[in-house]
């Protein structure tokens, strides 16, 4: 039996994806394939309303790519065909996943690990965590979205600082820069991510999906295109059972039950 490098558990509408490749949960082609398989299944599982991505153990969320694979990929064209093309497809799928995603960073978050984290909608880091894009020290650079997804979060200047020097930053600096969305005490990132995800399971799933699609397009479309995309998405939201339930509950002074509406 092949090793399982991405574990999946589901509880109360929250799926927990755990990267598990000891000791530092590095990204291999097997791990990437298993991540894709898990995401494919979760995308069509109507019982799942939010995703948490975390790493096994306390040393690392994910410390980047398995450098031992590099020797197979150092001739022109090899790294794209053997690793990067498919890896980028999978990371892009995570970045545009139709359900909200939360990354729980409980240890080192480096290179490809930070690229995975930046595909998630919300990032929670423990206070002791270091984050870095150190690929430049190997003569390469982040090649699975780090160059642009990190830049979108922290801006061009700080992104260049991270990628040109490759040095780690602290969780607090990452929070100040906007790279992560919260810093929590050591040992609590997963619990806090579960709490956030639990809140998201009670939100209107269709409206969240539409909202996410417009936000994700913010850097790719011009303002006129974004207005049109927002109008189209808004029309779909306003005509949904979720909206009818939200308005009904507002006037009834009740908490809306969006999950019931999805099956009505």
UniProtKB/TrEMBL annotation:
Family matches, as Gene3D superfamilies: 2-enoyl-CoA Hydratase, Chain A, domain 1
InterPro entries linked? ClpP/crotonase-like_dom_sf, Enoyl-CoA_hydra/iso
Question: What Pfam families does this protein map onto?
Answer: ECH_1
Q: What is this protein called?
A: Enoyl-CoA hydratase-related protein
Q: Which organism is it from?
A: Rhodococcus jostii
